[in-house]
């Protein structure tokens, strides 16, 4: 998952972009970048590996001049983790365009050849986002005009929709024009727009999550619709248009389970309320199926599961205790790039308060069990702290299928639930009992917030991919490209291609 933010303002936007990225940090911890257009119509870019606070020093911020810009935090799902694939990407023709992308294209392997043959465009990295930028650039070029009008831009986006598949919430700065943002026709990844009034006029902002708008004092106008494009000219005129032929509203349900911040509202659904609702339905299931168990206390696994766990405790009429303390200086473990890093970080990140465990039957609650890295270690910790019995509940169903839309779960074999039933997962993680939310219950909990959404992308749970273009061959290829070994090799290889991107 990545986070994107773009602003067309009346004042310098560097600080607001930085602040927006800081509150989207949970969506990507590997790299960050900002690009602005200054008063000479020059793009100013800074991107590097690392957290937002480490990537941008004062000298970089001073360089990022201008009233219009965009930013990105990266969690790689294609290519490597190297700086060369940090975003935004840039192409000089037509006009000068810089692009940032959240999501993952599912036909990028088919597009590279076409781009070279038809558009004579060279792709220098293995990032799907560089491909997306070049497809967009080619379509903008094909309009044949020097000064693009909104209809030219929207026609270009319509053609991009026709050519690319997969998930994309993307935004581009076009020199001499403005900021363009668009969302894939299934609305898999989130995108929201807002505005802020100033003495010099209205400023607009588009971002992955509403929390970025809150942080910058923008009010939410609405979500960008699946397939829709939003174009804000450099002068601050807003244009929107539905560019997809057959849009469908099928957002990724995993945003609500894990990715998004609870204080965000995505597609009119409060992430926080959806997590509480997940606790309500799972609490009822536990009541029905585990009535015979003697649970003393409900303990969340910080951070994401806390809202769900509190609700479960309320439904069960049991105490809720913060039995684990989270080290606030360690990031999210799941979105770390390699399994070794993830494993090591769990113990550095979480520590048990033994008094909450000693002699008790505890029910641990997590939002999801994906590779089982967290649950296994956390259960060991509970036992070491003296727990008598350790039961485990997951607010999401078993994750059995790879994700192809911007979450880095490329290989079914890395998933603990792949090929295992609940009893054997329970054995592997070492729990005395394990219960999962059912998929219909999860969907119901999230849909409560917006019943107009008829379907979510639930592919990691049921293997039904909303873009209808994923077959076993695709999944095999993905697995080969992105299993742990392949990723490590790609990182080493790309690291030697970097120098051209490495401006200080
Ligand atoms: O089964 P696994 O492969 O371990 O993945 C699932 C775990 O990873 C995430 O936590 P993370 O530490 O990333 O973030 P959080 O602090 O937001 O919960 C998630 O909340 C689960 O705890
Ligand atoms: N998680 C994402 O949205 C990743 C975006 C893009 N596919 C990349 O790897 O950079
Ligand atoms: Mg967690």
Which fold does the CATH topology of the largest domain refer to?
Glutamine Phosphoribosylpyrophosphate, subunit 1, domain 1
Bound compounds, each kind once, are: 1-O-pyrophosphono-5-O-phosphono-alpha-D-ribofuranose, glutamine, magnesium ion
CATH class of the largest domain: Alpha Beta
Largest sheet: 7 strands, antiparallel
* Percent of residues in helices: 25-40%
Number of discrete helical segments? 17
* Strand coverage percent: 15-25%
Mean pLDDT: 94
Q: How many domains, as an integer?
A: 2
Give the strand tally: 21
Note the gap between the termini. 26 Å
CATH architecture of the largest domain: 4-Layer Sandwich
Q: What topology, given as strand order, has the largest sheet? A: 3-2-4-1-10-9-11
What does this protein look like?
This protein is α+β, with helices and mostly antiparallel strands and about 500 residues long. The chain has 2 domains: about 250 residues, Glutamine Phosphoribosylpyrophosphate, subunit 1, domain 1 (4-Layer Sandwich); about 170 residues, Rossmann fold (3-Layer(aba) Sandwich), CATH 3.40.50.2020. A 7-stranded antiparallel sheet has the order 3-2-4-1-10-9-11. A 6-stranded antiparallel sheet has the order 5-6-7-8-12-13. A 4-stranded parallel sheet has the order 16-19-20-21, sandwiched between helices. Helix 4 packs parallel to helix 5, helix 5 packs across helix 6 and helix 11 packs parallel to helix 12. The site of glutamine has 17 residues, from strand 6 and helix 5. 1-O-pyrophosphono-5-O-phosphono-alpha-D-ribofuranose binds next to helix 12.
